[in-house]
Write a structure and sequence with these properties.
By secondary structure, this protein is of the alpha/beta class. The protein has a domain at 118-304: Glutathione S-transferase Yfyf (Class Pi), Chain A, domain 2, CATH 1.20.1050.90. The chain is built from ten helices and 15 strands. The chain has helices at residues 36-48, 122-126, 129-141, 145-167, 173-213, 233-246, 248-254, 275-278, 281-303, 320-332; strands at 2-11, 14-20, 25-29, 67-76, 79-88, 91-97, 100-101, 114-117, 219-224, 265-270, 273-274, 308-312, 336-340, 354-359, 362-367. The strands form three sheets. The chain has a six-stranded antiparallel beta sheet, with helices on one face. It is globular, with a radius of gyration of 22 Å.
Length: 372
C-alpha cells in the first residue's frame, strides 16, 4: 500500500497543489519555510486526522481562507481508495472516503499508519511526561480503535471531576464519587494497554539502539504509571478507586485530580541510567531515533502494513553511520518522504528517490526516480 498522489487546497501556504509520489522514496529539497514540512503534515493528517505540529486545525487553513482540504489517493492491493479531509474555521473537520461522507473521523485510524521523525523528537527524551504520553497514545490509537473510546471517556470524566474540584463547594463529595467509577473503569483499560505496548516498544527500541551503537548500549523503555497496573482490568480499576478515595483530601485542597493515567510517564533508560538526566546530547538524540524506529516496527506489526515514514529535516543532524543505517531501514520498509535543505545530506539516497524542489509553495519534479 502507498500514497499515489496528494491534492491540497488552501492548506498552509498552498493555494492548490497536486503531486504524484514514488511508491518507495520521495525527497523534498529547498530552503526553510517554503512548504516542505506542510506536505508531510498533510500526509500525517490523512493518517491520524490531526497535525503533528499544529495546536488547532484552523492553523492549517491558508491565511485569509475559511476552508482547506487534503486529499490522497491510496493504492492498495485491492484497488484505489480516496481519502479527503476538509477543514473549516469554527466548525468540525469532515472526512470523506471514496466520496462518501463518514460519521466518525476514527474510521481513518490504522488505515494509513505513519511515523514522523522531526528535530523536535529530542523533546521526547528531554521534555515532560505529556510528550511521552502523546507518543504512546498515538502509537496505540493507530493499532486499536477501541483505545480511542476509553481515552475519550476518560478525558470526559477527568474534565468533570476537575471542574467539581475547582468549585470547592459543599456537597460535591457525592458528585465526585459518581465520576470516580468511569474514571477508574476507563483509566484501567488505558493503563493495561499502555503497559502492554510499552513492553513491545522496549523490545523494538532496545534492538534499534543495539544496531545503532554496534551493540554498545542497552535501551529500556519502562511504563511508569501512577499506581500498579498489572492484573485483570477489574482489579486495576479497584486499585484506582481506592487510590482516588485516599487522595480525596489532597485533591480537594489542590482542586485537581491527582490519580490516574493522565499522570503516567515512560521511563527511558540507557545502560541502567535515566537518559533524560544522565545521557549526553548524542545519546539522547540516538535514543529518540531508536524510539521512533521502535514505533515504526510496532505499527508494522500491529497494522499489518508498512507505515509511511515522514522524515522532516533530520538527516543533516545524523552522522554518516546513522544516515547509512536509517537509509538501509527505509529500503526494508514502506513508502518514505524526506525533507531537507541540501542534496548533499541525501547523497546515498538520491539515486533511489523521486526528487522534488519546493519553493514558495510550488513543488516541481527534479528527478522522477526509478520505476517502482
Amino acid at each position: 500500500m502507498h500514497v499515489r498522489s496528494l491534492r491540497l487546497a488552501h492548506f498552509r501556504n498552498y493555494e492548490s497543489l497536486e503531486v504524484e509520489f514514488h511508491p518507495q522514496l520521495n525527497l523534498f529539497l529547498g530552503p526553510n519555510a517554503q512548504g516542505k514540512t506542510n506536505v508531510l503534515e498533510a500526509l500525517y493528517c490523512l493518517s491520524t486526522t490531526r497535525s503533528f505540529r499544529a495546536a488547532s486545525d484552523e492553523e492549517m487553513i491558508q491565511f485569509g481562507r475559511e476552508e482547506g482540504a487534503v486529499e490522497g489517493i491510496l493504492q492498495r492491493e485491492e484497488g484505489e481508495e480516496t481519502i479527503r479531509m476538509e477543514f473549516r474555521r469554527s466548525r468540525n473537520k469532515v472526512l470523506w472516503v471514496n466520496r462518501k461522507k463518514q460519521k466518525k473521523l476514527s474510521l481513518l485510524l490504522g488505515r494509513l499508519p505513519a511515523v514522523v521523525f522531526s528535530p523536535d523528537d529530542l523533546f521526547l527524551v528531554k521534555g515532560g511526561p505529556a510528550l511521552r504520553r502523546r507518543y504512546l497514545d498515538m502509537t496505540v490509537l493507530q493499532m486499536d480503535q477501541g483505545y480511542l473510546t476509553h481515552l475519550q471517556q476518560y478525558d470526559r470524566a477527568l474534565k468533570q471531576r476537575n471542574s467539581l474540584l475547582r468549585q470547592r463547594s459543599p456537597g460535591t463529595e457525592s458528585q465526585l464519587a459518581a465520576w470516580d467509577q468511569p474514571l477508574a473503569r476507563h483509566g484501567a483499560a488505558l493503563m493495561l494497554k499502555r503497559g502492554e505496548v510499552a513492553k513491545r516498544l522496549s523490545d523494538f527500541a532496545g534492538q534499534a539502539l543495539r544496531d545503532l551503537t554496534g551493540d554498545a548500549e542497552r535501551f529500556e523503555v519502562r511504563y511508569e504509571p501512577c499506581l500498579p497496573w498489572e492484573g485483570l482490568e477489574s482489579s486495576v480499576a479497584e486499585k484506582m478507586l481506592e487510590a482516588l478515595a485516599g487522595a480525596r483530601r489532597e485533591e480537594t485542597a489542590r482542586g485537581v485530580t491527582v490519580v490516574g493515567p493522565h499522570r503516567d510517564d515512560l521511563g527511558l533508560w540507557v545502560n541502567g541510567q535515566l537518559l533524560r538526566k544522565f545521557g549526553s546530547q548524542g545519546q539522547q538524540r540516538t535514543g529518540a531515533l531508536a524510539l521512533k524506529l521502535a514505533q515504526l516496527s510496532l505499527l508494522a506489526e500491529g497494522c499489518h502494513t508498512a507505515p509511511l515514514v515522514l522524515f522532516d529535516d533530520v538527516m543533516a543532524e545524523l552522522d554518516e553511520k546513522r544516515q547509512a543505517f536509517f537509509l538501509n531501514r527505509l529500503r526494508q520498509g514502506g513508502q518514505a518522504f524526506l525533507t531537507g535543505t541540501s542534496p548533499h545530506d541525501f547523497s546515498a539516497a538520491s539515486k533511489a528517490a523521486r526528487i522534488f524542489s519546493v519553493e514558495l509553495g510550488r513543488v516541481q519534479w527534479v528527478q522522477s526516480g526509478p520505476e517502482g
